[in-house]
Design a protein that fits this description.
This protein is of the alpha/beta class. The chain is 36% helix and 15% strand. The longest helix has 25 residues, at 150-174. Keywords: ATP-binding, Kinase, Nucleotide-binding, Pyrimidine biosynthesis, Transferase.
């Protein structure tokens, strides 16, 4: 019985009586002829230099984490636990991206959003975005122009949201935030198609996911897309960034005495017909117990505060932590 060229990697067998090992192996196998091992090479492991003669299997033990790395992980965990939500969906309207309306997309607004999202993703909070397209094209208001039907107008509006999403993605990645854009209909050259499990996996890996093209169907707003995607990816809250401080009991532009509401129920929004989100979106949030925070995008730090769950704007469908003061 012959074994072809063999290399035996032995950690510290150089001192082991190989002849006795050879004879015992042959007798154990009850071979009629001695076991021949041609071209056998014994390689002494680098570990054998530190091995004791009494322990031929002296393998290296795994390194124990240092106290500094342990403290670092504990600090990160405490920061995450101090935040109210672990996974959030941020809804940014197209009008908010336009800023002072002098251009379709204000780079300063986009960079402000990117920086505040970056500050919370580094704490381990998972952030997804739904972006509108009203700064470029609003389908509901353009329907009927030059014979344009509502469905075609809405599809054009969906393409506008993709433009905003790509702009936001480029801005975020310029400051080191890994970002993926997923569209409701296929545009494989510029973005991924929306796949629920893939989106969740991106979030788990610390990437920001931007959902574009609404839900891919006309007659639905991007508010509805935000509520739907929030439910699908198991996000804990919809954060609606607007150009006002929150929800008022009257139009603050017409009534200077209008009062900012601290909390509301979903039913309050529906029964009072408050212009927070469209009825489809707010009903979807109500049915899935999804709270909504409405806050002012234009105030620095508000995005970070909202994502962390700090008291800002108006909270719909839940109550604020009693220890939090309004900022």
């Amino acid at each position: 019985m012959a074994i072809s060229t063999t290399t035996l990697l032995l950690s510290s067998f150089s001192s082991y009586p190989f002849s006795s090992f050879h004879s015992s192996l042959s007798s154990t196998l009850k071979l009629s002829s001695p076991l021949t091992l041609p071209n056998v090479t014994l390689i002494r492991s680098s570990y054998s230099q530190n091995a004791s003669s009494s322990d031929p299997f002296n393998f290296r033990e795994p390194e124990i984490p240092t106290m500094s790395s342990f403290q670092r992980s504990m600090n990160e965990s405490s920061k995450i636990s101090s935040s109210r939500w672990r996974r959030v969906l941020l809804k940014v309207s197209g009008e908010a991206l336009a800023g002072d309306q002098s251009q379709n997309i204000d780079p300063k607004i986009a960079m402000a959003i990117a920086r505040e999202v970056a500050s919370v993703t580094r704490l381990g909070i998972e952030v997804a975005l739904v972006v509108g397209g009203g700064n470029i094209f609003r389908g509901s208001s353009r329907a009927g122009c030059s014979g344009l039907d509502r469905s075609s107008a809405d599809y054009i509006g969906m393409l506008a949201t993709v433009m905003n999403a790509i702009f936001l993605q480029a801005t975020m990645e310029s400051i080191g935030i890994p970002t993926r854009v997923q569209t409701a209909f296929r545009m494989s050259e510029v973005a991924e198609p929306y796949i629920r499990r893939k989106a969740i996996r991106h979030l788990e890996k610390g990437r920001v996911v931007i959902f574009a093209a609404g839900i891919g169907n006309p007659f639905f707003t991007t508010d509805t897309a935000a509520a739907l995607r929030c439910a699908e990816i198991n996000a804990e809250v919809v954060l609606k960034a607007t150009n006002v401080d929150g929800v008022y009991d009257d139009d603050p532009k017409r009534n200077p005495h209008a009062r900012l509401l601290d909390t509301l129920t979903h039913q309050d929004v529906i029964s009072k017909d408050l212009s927070v989100m469209d009825m489809t979106a707010i009903t979807l949030c109500q049915e899935n117990n999804i709270p909504v925070v409405v806050f002012n995008l234009n105030k620095p730090g508000n995005i970070e505060k909202a994502i962390k769950g700090e008291r800002v704007g108006t909270l719909i469908g839940a109550t604020w932590n009693s220890t939090m003061s309004r900022t």
